[in-house]
Every structure is written in structure tokens, then in C-alpha cells.
Please model this.
Amino acid sequence: MKPTKNNLNIYSLTFRLPIIIWQLLFFVGPVLFMVAMSFFLVKNYRMTEAFEFINWTKMFSKNYFWDSYWFTIIIAGTSTLLTMLIAFPASFTLAFKVSDNIRRWAIFMLIIPFFTSYLVRTFSWYVILAEKGVINAFFSYLDLGPFKMLNTHIGTLVGYMTLTLPLVIILQTVTMANIDRNLIEAAYNLGCKPKSIIQRVIIPLSKTGFIIAAVFCFILSFGDFVAPFYLGGSQEPTLPILILDTTKSGQQWPRAAVVAIVMMITLFSIAFIGIMTAYSKSFKK
Amino acid sequence: MSYKLVTFKNVCKNFEKIPAVKDINFDIGKGEFLAIMGPSGCGKTTTLRMLAGLEIPSSGEIRFNNRLMNNVKPHERDTPLVWQSLALFPFLNVQENVEFGLKMRGLSPKIRNKKSLEWLEKLEVKELAKRDISTLSGGQKQRVALARSLVMEPEILLLDEPLSALDAHLVIRMQAVLTQLQKELDITFVYVTHSQSEAFAMADRVIIMNVGEVSQIGTPKDIYRSPTNRFVAEFVGRNNILSGKVYDIKSNIAYIKTNAGCFNFQLDKNKPIQKGDKINYIISADLMNFSSVKPQKSNIINCRLISEEYVGSIVTLFLESTDGTEFKIQITERELSKFNIQNGNKYWLSWSEKNVHVLIEE
Amino acid sequence: MTKEKYLNFILITYLIFIFVFIFTPIAFSVIFSFNSQRFPTIPLGNFSLEWYIKIFNDPGVWQAAINSVIVSLVTCILATFLGFCTAYSDYRYRFKFKGLYLALVLLPPTIPLIILALAMLAWLSKIGMSGQLWSIICAHSVLTAPFAMAIIRLRLNQIDPDLESAAWNLGGSEWATMRYVILPYCKPAIISSLCLTAAVSFDEFAISWFVSGLNKTVPVIILEIVQGNIDPQVNAIGTFVFFTSMTLVITAQIFFLTWQMKGKNK
Model:
């Protein structure tokens, strides 16, 4: 049976309406209000409703805003690239080198961290990476170190990967496991070397899945404030930290809204470009 | 037909402007076993679903006991259906499945228990009452599905290709179960199928449908021996159909010229035929004679044997005449064993002018 | 052949290393929670329940735990209800603007939490709902309903499309069919969804932190402790949090996998 055509009655509306009402009230409402808020004024720590561009012009004329903007894009981009590269051999192994059963169990395991407290995991890294932490204690046995990892970009990247690596491995594995094995066999029989099979068969066939994984990875890193704040030291604030500071300390909600809107536009553009390239490339073939 | 239980009058059904059923008219008698047959996409299942209220006719009238049913909701009808997928509830056990309809009617658990066991017993699956649906075999599921519908004790039972998922030997057994049940309970059965053998083996009357229209209604014998149009003649199968032109009529015998040669047939008083008419000349495969020497008759043709097909003790031979026309003939294996047959050899086919069925081409 | 074996060995070792990286923070958090050192490192200090006793005697932690349970319990029921309704509407009906309708439901998880948090805070203050447990619940249900919708929709994908019609055909009204056919059929997915949405809500800190006001949940307490100083209490609380959410996630997966397998055998 195909889905029934639109017929409006009490029964169908009972199931259709709740989410519409709920999302309008608690999703569309807040987001639109935030957009409106970016035009409000703040006087004597009090927000008044208005329609002024002052928050936008103020933010856009500040150097620290642009520094922070590019820094966030670069560090999230680096993190995405690194995560994709680090995940690939692991996903490749899961997709091609282990039994279906082991793969299922591995994915089962990888889902667990995705739904467990990111905050506590980050704090755990904080202790492990610290100057007197577990890793440096280990190095001191070898008469090395101590290495400074906390409050550096390495710390931030470790934090981002805590968040994104399991998800990226899952997406890459599922993508590659779905490639038709016959194609790989065929390439192998035609004399392709393993290295060129990866380059010429596996990667082109998994392009869409990989781009989607990268987009997700970027969105998560770009929007995360915990890793750069606790592990990266926040000397160079990322945009999320900027929102945090502006909202929590300065009471400057409208300016925080400006930052948030810029972030959303950036993310949607990147996601859009990513998805367009993901699908257009596979179209040409 | 005794009493008209169901009437379809000018019924049409369109899906998004695409017609699925076009202006169909027929009646279903009380206690009748009616089969609706046709190729896939002919509208037979849509017709059945309209009867169950699962589709609303775009126009026309469907009456049940003379009551207009067009806008009666499915659950307010008493037209249980046996589904092609069976659609047993996987989260309920056998007995709970059978009780489902009674529960929806608000009957007490005591009566539900009694009735469901009674019907499971009638279908010889009482010992499965507490079993999980997923543990049953195909045939057992079939019986449970029947019990689930029959426990409603309806006036009419709808069946949508219920045997299509079963093995061949089980199909034969279930056919016997169905015909026997139908006679015993005196319920009207409407049976949708694409299988000619199922329809002809069980039904009192058969409706042949094609591209949303009724092609022919009649008893299995009518349809088999006297198809009223070329579609039915071809669909019923095992018919040799030749196209030709009448070139002479002498007393009650007409002569026709086809690509395969000249043949004749006996005229029917009810079917006026004139010289120059274009006609379809149909001889059923089982009414043909087979021989290795040339018979001294009028309707004969020499053909090369191409292949043979055995179904039980009946053999279908496929032959080709010199001009390339294909002929089919059905004979018993016993009769065939009298000949020393070999593919590629030539044999003679012949038939009586009385066994020819003709259709005037429009 | 030996070369390939060698390569396989390297790949498997690498895979194990990656899993170690992913599970290291979880493992150390648990280990440190039983460690006597104020700043845990190796070699480890003595086994100690000090941090557990400390949080056990902290009424603030207790209050936060109660708040967290209330929030995730109400959120999971609300989100699963919303997700079920949406999944069923998508399965059963075609209607105008369905693409927009689905986008509306599925969009929230793609927006960074910090942005949702800011938007929520501003909006809820505007309509006078800020600073209560209800504020967190509303925000969390928006965030988690898409997960519920996805899980239940996957289950409905497997349903025999005739099942619903079969129930009508046997005299069940649409409502009775919902109660006696669709809901029982979706039960494993509903349980999965309840667990998973509860887990997400239980761990979420950004939105909770922004909108909770004085009604702190456990992740907010952790965030505040972490902001102050290194305090192994966090590990003790964290261990509790891990085991709660892991139990929920694993339960969800077990239910999910059972019906996935059953679906395949059909």
C-alpha cells in the first residue's frame, strides 16, 4: 500500500499536528527570535526591542571577531581533515578485513560513546594530557618530556576527535561495506594493485558517504565549545567561546546572536556545498 | 443466479487521474464462488479492495444486499479478506490472531475463546493455537488466515491470490479445502487470481478482466470453450488462434483462408457470418488430433515438432507449420506413447469442423 | 601472501589502537574515581571511595540527580510521542509540503548546541518560561525527537503494508487499529527510542546550562566543578553518568538489533 493521499480528518491531524506545533513553539520560534534579537539594543545592561544594525556593524568592525572566525574555520577544517585521515585505515579494516559479525559488534561499540557524556570524557582527557598527567608520567620513565599538550591546538584536536571520531568511523565503514565486492574483485583481476584499488575504486565509489561524514565532522567541531575551552586553553577563542563569553559575562545577547547567525550561515553554506559536490560527482559517472 | 448479494454498477476507479478500473458492471449471487482473473495490472485487486472498502470508487455504485456501500468505512463492513501476504499479526499468537476480529466487535473473552478454537478445529490447526506466527509453515499460516476471516461468519469472503505463495502440491490441497468449505458453509467467495487452473478448478463463474475492463463473464466452460474476444482466447491459453477471411459458404459450412492454409468450420445459427468477413479461427489444443500419417479429412496441417511439455499425464506438444505458424496440441501421455516421437520430425494435426470456435474481428 | 598478512596485522593493530583512543577517557574516568590522589596520574595512588562519599553527602549533587532524572524521563516520553506521531504521519500519509514538514523535524540536531542554547535562552526568557525544569524539557524534546522519529520510522519500514488494512477489514476502527496493531508492532522501537532519547537528554549540558537557572542538572554540576578546579569528584559523578547512559544506550541497541534480525529472517 502506498502512503494514503492527503486526507484531513481528526485521526490524521492527531498525528501530524503535535510536532508542527511543538517545533514552531520551541525551534522555529527561538531561531527567528534570535535573528530578531540581533537587531535589539542593550542599554545599561538591559535589552530593548529595536531594529538597529549597530550590533552587526560593531561585530563586523572588530578584529577579534574576524580572527576568531577564521581561526574556528581553520581549526575545525584541520580537525575534519585529520579525523577523516585517521579514521580511514580503521574504517577500511572494519569494512574489508573483518567478518560481518565483528563489524556489527564494532559499530555497536562505536555508538556507545556517541551517546555518553562528552563533558566527562573531555575532563578525563584534561587529566590525562596535563603536564603531570598520565601520558607525561609515562614519558618521564623514558626520560622524555614533559610535553605540553594541554592548552595547545593538540588539546583542542584531541577533544574534537573524542566527539567526532566514532561517528566518522561508523559513516565511513558503512559506506565502504556497501560497495559491491564484485567491483573490487574485478579491479583486482584486471591487475590493479591494492593501492590503486583504494584510489581508483573504493574512494570514488564512497565519495558521497565520505563527504557526508566530513560535513558532519565539521559541523560538530565548528559548534563545539568544550574542547577549545578546556583542552585548548581558549587563548584564541573560537566562535562558540565568543558566544559563551558574550552571553554569560557581558549580557550582550544581541551580539552573541550576531555571532550565532554568522555561524549558522557558514555551516549551511558548507553543508550545502558539500552535499552538492557529493551528489553532482556521482551523477557525472 | 438466485439472489443478488453484490451489484457493481458503472464502477470506475482512478488513481491520480490514471484509470485502474473502467466502468465495470456485474452481480455476485448469494452462495456463489466467483473468481476474478486477469493479468497483473488488470484491476482485479482494485475491484476486490473496493468491495472491502479499502478503495473508494471514483464513480458508479457498489451495492451489498441492496445497500449503497460506496462510502461505508472498511471496518463498518462485514467483508473479511484473505490477503496475498496473509497479513497475520506477527506480535500475536495463532489464537489471538483468530480472535482479533471478534475482539474488535466487542465480544467477551469467553465467546472469543470458544469461537476461535471452533474455527481452528474446522481448519485442522487447533493444536497450533498457542504457537507464534513465525513458527508456522506456509500451509499452516494459510489455514490460520482463513480461520481469522471465517470466524467472523460473514456472508461473503474475499480472497486475494491467497495461494500464490504456496508450493504446487499444497495449492492443490488448499483448493480442495476451499471448495469444500465454500459448499459446506454456503458463503459467497470472491476469489482474485492470475492462475487459470485455480480459477477454473474452483469457481462457479469467472470474470476475466483486462486493462481495467471486464472482458468476459461466464462459467469456466463458457470461457474455455467460447471466448467472446481474442484477449480471452489468448489469456485462457492453449488455444490455437488463426486469423483469416471467409471466402466461401456452402450450406452450413464456411471456408476460410489463413496464412497456414485453407480450413472450414460449421456455422452457428446465432452467429451470422458472411462471405468476406475477417475472423479469428480458434481450436482448443485439447480438441486436436495427432497422427504420423496423413488423415483423410478436411482440416489438416503438416507440422514440425519443436518441443514437448509434461504436466502430470497431459502432454502439450508445440509444433510449427511450414509457413511458421505455431500450433499447440494437448494429448495424454498414454496416447502419445503410441507414436515414436522425435523433435524435428513432421506430423499431421487435424480437427473437426464442429470443434472450431470463431470470433468476428472488429 | 605473507606481505598481505603483515599488512593485515598492521591494520588490525591500528584498529585496536583507535578503539583504545576512543575508550581511554571512559576507562580512566572510572579508574580515577577510585583513586586517592587529588591530581590523578601514574603511578596510581591508593584505592579510595573518598570521592564517592563526598558526592554522596552533597545535597547539591542529589538535587541535580533528581532534576536530571525528571528531565530525561519527561523528555524521553515527550520526544518519543512526538517522534512516533511524525514517523507514522510520514509512513501513512502523503500531503503538501511534506518535505518542509520533515525538514522541520530533522533539522535541530544539525545546529550547534551552543546556538540552540542561546536561541532557547532568549526565547524562553521572552515568553517567561526560563529557568525552570520545563524549559530544559522543551528544549531537549526538540533536540531528541528526530532520533525517536528515525528509529520508529525504520521499524515502520518493515511493517507488512497490508497489516493495517487487515485490522480495518476485521472490524477495527482507525483508532482501535492504532491501539491494537500499530503500537504493539512498534513496541521494540518505542523502547529503543525511549532509552536513546533519555540518554541524550541525560548527557546534554550546553542547553541545560543556558536555560536551567537554579535548577541544575548533573551535567551542569559537572561543568561548574570543572570550571573551578581539578576535582576528582567529577570522575565519581562521571562514572555514574557513564553507567546510566551506557545502560540506556545498550538497552536501546539490544531492542533495535533484535527486531532488525527478526526483520531479516522474514
User: Anything to note?
Assistant: Chain A touches chain C through 86 residues (CB under 8 Å).
